[in-house]
Amino acid sequence: METRKRKLLERPMFDSVIKSADMEKREKWIGYLVGPAGALLLNAVLGSYLNVYYTDVLKLTGVWGGAFLMVFPLISKIIDAITNVIMGYIIDRTRNGQGKARPYLFLAALLLPITGILLFTVPQGNETVEVVWVMLSYNLFYSLAFTIYSMSHNLMVPLSTRNSDQRGVLAVFNNVASVMITGILVALIFPMAVLPALGVDKAAWIKMAVVLSIIALPLTLLEYYFTKERVTQEGAELKEEETVPYMKQLKAVFTDRYMMCLLTYFLISTIGANMKNISLVYFCNYVLGTYADGITQTMVSAIGGIPMGVGIFLVWPLAKKFGKRNVTMAGFVLYAVGGIVCFAAPTNMVVVLIGQFIKNFGGLPSAYVFMALMADTYDHLEWKNGFRVDGAAMSIYSIITVAGVGLTTGIFNILLANAGYVAPEMINGQTVAYVQPAAVQSIITFSFVGMEVFTAIIVIVLLAFVNVEKDLGRKQAEIRERNEKKRIAES
What is the pLDDT of residues 181-193, one digit of tens each? Predict the structure, then answer.
């Protein structure tokens, strides 16, 4: 069966169009900017609004006495964590002409639209059927389809090349797709033009999901065809790569200071960011503005998002001059300051906009160069241990991503339910929202503008221990020399 799959993927129709040993322009623009936009857009919409669909459209807040929307995300993320480990194991043992991670982009392109639509086509009328459908569709998307996509997608930068400058450029382009494209559509256009039209109309939400899911298919295929795994090809003939036990790879990850600091940093920042993201709509609806007014969320996202556009031109030159770690640390200082400004007056539009601008400016290095810093650490681990740990490390990275979503979603939902959250109603064809209790508003406010002050401070401390960029060029040269000696010995 494995041989049959390998032969299928090695047919010319599955070959990458990128042939050069060095980074190509179309690789940057299509493979790392345009291609990822479809899947990332779908995921960004779900990350920001799926919980709103559950609480406001399906009205699941009160199911199981308010426990359902807390319990099911947590259980689902345990399943997701298991599938991430399995996927990491599979990637590390995949060997064919298309690479070790790229082949799964093709599979994800087929699965994402199907599972994305199933998330919203929840039958109503029977609570048991509704609950089962929500749990199954959620896990089909996140534990299967998006796990396959995110792990292969996130490995493309580290596996694309060993050239640190080229890898940094690809990391920036990769994050432009996430930060700019999805940010403009999801954070600006969506709340201004789409949310007011959706209201709590289930049929309208389903149509929206169908459109976004279908868009993801061709764009993900573009990402597949316009990327290339040069690092994988470099070591394709080395037998040792195929025989390193998975537990040995995990041990290498968990015993390395740099990797553990980076993964802990990612965990802390992910929890803060997820809590902010899930509470954004609620904050704009009930604290800063009125329900789906079409302007509050757009203003918060627009003013806060302007620095992300500037970051395309600023971040990489600064990172090259001062170091990726140092620039990221300085950015998180600004991030904490911006959060304090917002938290000081969360109901004042001007103050919140100023604080959001400062926060997002400070978040630029983290958004654009983190994956390049991770890629440096992959090379450091290969130099240190003599083998790659891409799949093992990425499985932990992905577990943090999904566990953070489940943890924050569950906590936020149970806090809302216990504080007395009141879902809006559809009355005479119109969406009618209610003023939330003071306790609900306090929870929403801390989630959106308060928590990230603390997470930013913790991250600054962690980054102080990550000087992986030191002597990286020498380590990469030693890796190439070592691999060349192995090839000669095996020939």
Answer: 666 677 667 777 7
